[in-house]
Amino acid sequence: GPWHNYHSAGTLRLDKYASLLTYTGPDGEKAWPKKYPFCGGVFQSPIDFHRDILQYDSNLSPLEFIGYNVPSTDRFTLTNNGHSVKMYLSPTMHLRNLPFEYTASQLHLHWGNRNKSEGSEHTVSGKHFAAELHIVHYNSEKYPDVTAAMDKADGLAVLAILLEIGPFNPSYEKIFRHFQNVKYKDQMVQVPGFNIQELLPDRPDEYYRYEGSLTTPPCYPSVLWTVFRHPVKISQEQLLALETAMYCTESDDPEPLEMVDNFRNVQEFRERLVFISFREGKLYKCFYAKKQHSNLCKTEILMWWSRCLNHYKNMGIPFSSPDLYFINHSICRIQYSWSSKKALWTRCTKGKLKC
């Protein structure tokens, strides 16, 4: 999650968290709430995305990335802040199509270690990815800078990209090839500008959206998360460079400490939903997959239908209501009014619906 030593002309640097941040041992994440009460509070991140909490939302439109193509004459500062590698971004970069306009602040990474490449923060159905990239933005319509925004409920918007092993990725190499110059805490190097949009997956319109927190102390619940559905691939060699190049300690430290496993464990996500911009799962197959046989469609709708009915009976909701329900139950996730469900069902039973 967003790290907090904001770096620009004349802005104070919030490095006080960096030196204290540990993931394991007596001062590990279990101990964070003692010093930082928000870490033990609500709306915490990261979380696991599993079927029961996902709700399709047709209003989730693709984000607009303004000014992401930064000319190579501009320079980004890449730094080792003692718990991650972080790159300050150009204030000309903006995100639109969110409740507010957000201005880019920095990006950073989370990863595991060379023996266990499972360093993503967010997980999907319990599965970790190799690493995770976060691009942090602050609400520039309401706040002057990231420091002012980071403790406000509507302060931050973070894009998360899940990384997995695949072919060599030239776009990520534009950052990764500089790791040797930031081996130790507080070292910095200049990186030529490039198109930051290249770091995103091919289908950035498909994503998970929820309200959560910074994933490091002070864990403010101030983040609107957009976690892209499709992972981006980097090579085994690139991942190894990320897992082995850096240290948490300064260059003159007699006991260098490797920078590994800098991810927070998943947090409880009770009584809440994650909204998704893509249709997913068996419930949708019947309605949207062209190749399916209509008999399968009938069985699937029948199962879904009876489970839905039971769910509503149990909740004491009259199912004959013509209202359009936002159905939060995992079984009844499709948002149809009673009449259109009935129409679908009739078409299906008469074999008119080609699934």
TrEMBL record:
SUPFAM superfamilies: Carbonic anhydrase. This is Carbonic anhydrase. The gene is CA12. InterPro entries: CA_dom, CA_dom_sf, Carbonic_anhydrase_a-class, Carbonic_anhydrase_a-class_CS. Its EC number is 4.2.1.1. GO terms for cellular component: plasma membrane. It catalyses: hydrogencarbonate + H(+) = CO2 + H2O. Reversible hydration of carbon dioxide. Residues 19-278 form the Alpha-carbonic anhydrase domain. SMART domains: Carb_anhydrase. Keywords: Glycoprotein, Lyase, Metal-binding, Zinc. Its cofactor is Zn(2+). The keyword Lyase applies. It comes from Anas platyrhynchos platyrhynchos. Belongs to the alpha-carbonic anhydrase family. It holds the Pfam family Carb_anhydrase. It is an enzyme of class 4 (lyase). GO terms for molecular function: carbonate dehydratase activity; zinc ion binding. It comes from the Eukaryota.
